[in-house]
Amino acid sequence: MDSLTTRSGKLVTLNTETELLTVEDPVLGHSITIDLSTNRIVISAAGDLELNAKGRLKLTAGESIELESEGTLKLIAEDDAVLRGKMVRIN
Fold first, then answer.
1. Measured between alpha carbons, how far is residue 49 from residues 21, 31, 32, 44 in Å?
2. What is the DSSP string of 11-27?
3. Which of 34, 12, 14 is nearest to 24 (CA)?
4. Which of 2, 3, 46, 79 is the most exposed place for a label (fewest CB within 10 A)?
5. In which residue ranges of the chain is pLDDT below 70?
6. Is residue 49 part of a domain?
7. Residue 10 covered by a domain
8. 32-35 contact pairs (CB < 8 A, 24+)
9. What global pTM score does this model have?
10. What is the pLDDT of residues 66-83, one digit of tens each?
11. How far is CA 79 from CA 75, 76, 82, 88, in A?
């Protein structure tokens, strides 16, 4: 396992045995982990996580996409909002 620790405590770790690449801030609890053995990327934030794009933001999955909130879920469009599916169920 190889690792690099910055003066401020940020940690970059490459573990060739478990095939994990991790960038983390152990103090704040933020991390990005790339697991090469399972083809999985996990982004964890102790606080908020934002994705910003000046153009388009597109999420594409071959199987499914899940959005889950323990609180309020808002979908806001300044223009048309389109929801399309084979069957659309709204509780």
1. 20, 11, 12, 8
2. EEEEETTTTEEEEEETT
3. 12
4. 79
5. none
6. no
7. yes
8. none
9. 0.78
10. 999 999 999 999 999 999
11. 12, 9, 10, 21
The sheet that has 30-35: what strands, in order across it? 2-5, 11-15, 20-25, 30-35, 40-44
Would residue 7 count as lying in a domain?
yes
In the chain, the amino acid numbered 43 is I
| Bridging pattern class, strands 40-44 and 11-15 | unpaired
User: What residues contact residue 45 under an 8 Å CB cut-off, 6+ apart?
Assistant: 29, 30
Q: Report the distance separating Cα 32 and Cα 78, nearest Å.
A: 32
**Which residues lie below 8 Å from residue 16, measured CB to CB, with a gap of 6+?**
1, 2
Domain interval for residue 38: 2-44
Structurally, how many domains does the chain consist of? Answer: 1
Assess contact for 62 and 77: CB atoms under 8 A: no
